[in-house]
Amino acid sequence: MRRRRKKYDLYIVIALLIVTIGYFVYNHISSESRGVDNYASALEAYKSNDYETAYQEFGKVPSGSSLKPSALFRQARCATNFDKKELAVKKYKRIIRSGSKSTIVPISQYNMAILMYEIQDKDAKKYFKKIIKKYPSSDYAIASEYYLGMIEAQTPHKSEKQKAKSKERALIHFKTYLEKAPDGRFALPVIDEIVKLDTTLTNYDNLLIVKGYYQNGEYEKAKTYLNKTTLAESWSDFAKNEYKLKNNDKAKYYTELGLQKHAATTNQDDVFEVIDNYITMFPTRGEGIKKLVSLNTKSTGADYIAYLNCNEVVESNFKEACFRTLYENYPNGQFSADSLYNLFITKYLQKKYYDAQRLGFLHLKKFPNVKSSPAVTYFMGKIAYKLKHYESANSYYKKVIDTYPDTYYAYRANYNLYKDDGTLPFGELMEKPVIFPYKKSLDNNLVVKLAYLGDYDLVEELCKKDKFIQSWLAYEKGNYTISAVLARNAMEELTEKPPFTDLRWRLIYPMHYYDIVDKVKGDNNPIILEAIIKEESHFNPFASSAVGAKGLMQLMPATYNEVVKKHNLPSNPNDETANITAGSLYYEGLKKVLGNKDLYAITAYNGGIGSVNCWFSKLIYNDTDEFVEQIPYPETKNYVKKVLRSYWVYGNIY
Length: 654
What we know:
Blueprint: H1 2-47, H2 51-58, H3 68-81, H4 85-97, H5 104-118, H6 124-134, H7 139-154, H8 160-180, H9 187-197, H10 203-215, H11 219-226, H12 231-244, H13 248-261, H14 268-280, H15 285-294, H16 302-312, H17 316-329, H18 336-349, H19 353-366, H20 373-386, H21 390-403, H22 408-417, H23 446-453, H24 456-462, H25 467-476, H26 480-492, H27 504-508, H28 514-520, H29 526-537, H30 557-567, H31 576-593, H32 598-607, H33 609-618, H34 624-629, H35 634-653
C-alpha cells in the first residue's frame, strides 16, 4: 500500500513539474509574442512623434521579453522628448541594473550621464568616470572626456588653488579628447574651452589644436597655432595645411625641407600623406616623383619614394633592377612584399621558372598573407604545372580558392583546375534579396529582432562600429553606393573570408539593376555587365568621372551619343535603362571585333580598343595570364582583375 502511495506521489510531482515547465515555456513564448506586438505598435507611435502614446505602449512590453531593454531605452527617449529628464534617468538606470550584456547598456549609461549633467546632478561625474573605466576604447569613453572637462571647467571654487587644480584637470580631459578624436563632434568646442582656460600651452598642446582645426576644415585657424610650434616637429602639418589652403609653393617648400631635414622623427603616415599631396602639385605624376627622387632623402618616406619611382619605370629590365634595389635596401620595409612580388612575376614572364619558384617560396614564407599573396600562390601553381608537377600545381590552385576566394586569382585558379571549353563558368544569376547580414547576434538576438521590427535608428546606435550593419542600414535607406563601399571595406578587414552563402556578401555584391541587365544583355553574359556596373559606378546612376564618363556604365558622352543615335535610345545618360542598354550594345560591339573574347572586351572597355590592338602587336604572351600581367596601364590591368573578380563572386553568391 505504501509503495502504491509513493508511486502515486511521484506521479503527482512529475505532473506538477510538467505543468510548471509548461507554464514557464508558454509564458516565455507568450511574452516574446506579446513583446513583439507591443513594441511594433509603440514604434509606430514613436516614429509619428507621438511620444506620450509611445511611452505608454513601450511600457506594455512584458518583463520576460528580450525586447524589454530596448523598450526601456525607448521609454527613456520618449521621456527626454517630452522634457521629463528625471524620468528618463530612472528608465536608463533600470537597463543598467538589469545585468544585460547587450550594447544597449553602455549607451544607456552614457545617455543617462548626459541627462544628469544637464540637470546638474553631481553623480554625472561618477558615471562618466565609470564609462571610461569600463568601456575605455568606446566612443562613449572619448565623449565622456569632453563632459568631464566641462564639469571641471564649470565647477565653482572658493580658493584660487582649487580653481587652478580644476583648470589643470579640465585641460587634461580636453587634451585627451583631442588626442583620441581630433575629428570628433566635440573637437571644435573642446578647442574653444581650452582657449577659455587661458593657460600656457606647450608645443604639443598647440599641435593638438592644429590637428583639431585641420580635421574639421578650419585651415586658417590651424595656421595660427602652427605658427606657435617648432618647425622640426610640425613640418608635415605645415605642408598639409598649406596644401589645403592651395598655397602650393609653400606646401612644396615645407615638404622638401621636412623630407631632407626632419622626416626621421615624423609619423610615417603623415610623411606618406605629404608625399602624395606633393605629387599632385606637378603637371604630371612622373614629374612629381622625379623631383622627390632628386631630394635624395634617406629617412622616413625614402622607401615610399623609391617604390613610387619603381612603379613609374616602364622598361622591364630597368623595372626589375629598381625593385631589386628597393628590396635589398628595405628587406623588411612596408613595400618589401610588393617588391619581391614584382621580381617574382618578372622572372615568371621571362620564363626563368626555377628563379621565379625560388622567389615565390621566399615570398610565401616571409609574407604569408599580404595583398600579393593570391597572385604569388596562383603563379606558383602555374610554375609547378610547367615543370610537370601536376599534383603540386592543383594544390596551389585549391589553396588560392580556399584562402583567397573573392579574388581574381581564385577565378583563374578555378579555370585551371576545371578547364572545359574555355567559356565563362557562370551564365545566369538567381535573384536573392539583400537582407539583414546576421541571423544571430551576441545580445540574445536583440539587434536582429530590432532590425526586423524596423527600429533602424536604435540598430544604428547599438552597432556604430559594425560596418556590415551600417552598410545594411544604408541599403535600406536607398544609399546603395555607400552601402556597397562600407561592406567591401568591412570584408577586406577580415583575415578569414566567410563562405559565399554568408549574407554579408550580398551587401558588397547586390543585384541592383539586374532585371534591366537581363532584358538588354543581347549576346553578352549578363553577369559581366552587372560586374562592370558595380566596378564602374557602384550602382550610382548619377555617377560622373573626372574625364566626363556618365551613368551606371560610365560611358563617355561621345560614345553614349553615338550609340543613342544609332539605336534610338533616350538621350539622358542618367536614365538607368538607357545607360545600361547603351553600355551593353557598346560592350557587345567591342567583343565582336576582339574575337568574341570577354577578357579583351573588358580590357578595351577601360583602356580603349586602339590600345588593346596595339598591345596585341607589342606584348609577348602565350596565354591569358601573361597578357593581363603585362598590360602597360596599371589602371586598366587592375580594372580587368576587378571586373572578373566581381563576375566570379557574383556567380558564387547567386
